[in-house]
Fold:
Amino acid sequence: MAKSPHPPRIQPAQSSSRVITPKRAGVGAAVAAILAAVVALEGGYVDHPNDPGGATRWGITERVARQCGYTGDMKVLPQSFALSCYDRKYVREPGFLPLVEIDVAVAEEVIDTGVNMGPARPTRFFRQAVNEVCSTRLPITGRIDAVTVKAWSDCRTNLGPRSCVRMLDSLDRQQRAEYDRLVRVNPRLKVFHRGWVNHRIGNVKRSRCSL
Structure:
């Protein structure tokens, strides 16, 4: 089951102002920049009593840290380990890496949302967004497969930057609706709602779609 979103730590200016382009720096560098922005947003050690994900450091929950092989105290989890774990659990395992090759802005939105609320939710959001923007009929599942990647790649090629803008709009709309739903289901999460919306909705600027 995907984790519940945890509260953001600082303003996400780093995420929205970075110029991340695979053509200039390569996919690996683009992923590194995306994850560096996520770590900057998440901050250090936090253990909020209302957070169902429990204690985190650099946004990594203890459960995920153990899955990545960390055995130490969460309070001193190294940033370098967090970045490596992010790359494995929130980029490669969910199948998000090919999205970076197609459109970095959309990929950053999907990866950032995956860190905040688990990869399954933004995967479903992404497939729904592709259906809305590209007039496809992808089943809404929690998996990015080759068919999904090709559908988005073809759409991005055919529609150009406007498809990126429309994808980000759809992804943000679905993410906001999920935050609202989570608070209705669990009122204890209300303390995080404003931060989620302020820091996670619209954090990838539409001007990035022209890159």
